[in-house]
């Protein structure tokens, strides 16, 4: 059974991972397919050192895993449910961003 502290910790880790645009881009790339660090760095146009720091954060947050493949390492989303959660969150945020209406527009002066 999950506790409130566990729920808060899980959401905090997810939020920390999403707080940086590069980490968001990494998650979106890995959502499409697993990838090797060199390929990710090239796709993102960042140094491998910088990428390594972001991957370490994502690993620490529990969102990605490193899978040994011979002498190389491949990164992938830690659980398929995280990929679906990323898709759902992205869709929800886009839907809210497209909805410029406000139920109390005149009172709240929000539109």
Could you walk me through the main structural features you see in this protein, from its secondary elements to its overall organization?
With 111 residues, the chain is mainly alpha-helical. The protein is 64% helix and 11% strand. It has six helices and two strands, in the order H-H-H-H-E-E-H-H. The chain has a two-stranded antiparallel sheet. Strand 1 (64-69) and strand 2 form a beta hairpin. The longest helix is centred in the last third of the chain and has 19 residues, at 80-98. 14% of the residues are buried. The model has no long low-confidence stretch (mean pLDDT 87).
Concise account of the structure shown:
The protein is mainly alpha-helical and 111 residues long. The protein has helices at 4-18, 21-32, 37-44, 48-60, 80-98, 105-108; strands spanning 64-69, 72-77.
Topology:
Elements: H1 4-18, H2 21-32, H3 37-44, H4 48-60, E1 64-69, E2 72-77, H5 80-98, H6 105-108
Antiparallel strand pairs: 1-2
Helix pairs in contact: 3-4
**Major β-sheet annotation:** 2 strands, antiparallel
How many strands in all? 2
Q: Taking strands numbered 1, 2, ... along the chain, how are they ordered across the largest sheet?
A: 1-2
Report the portion of residues in β strands. Answer: 5-15%
The arrangement of helices and strands along the chain is HHHHEEHH
What is the number of helical segments per DSSP (H or I, 4+ residues)?
6
**What fraction, in percent, of the residue positions are helical?**
55-70%
Give the N-to-C terminal Cα separation.
Answer: 43 Å
Please give the radius of gyration in angstroms: 17 Å
Mean pLDDT figure? 87
Low-confidence blocks of residues: none
Secondary-structure-derived class: mainly alpha
Please state the overall shape, judged from the principal axes of the Cα atoms. Answer: globular
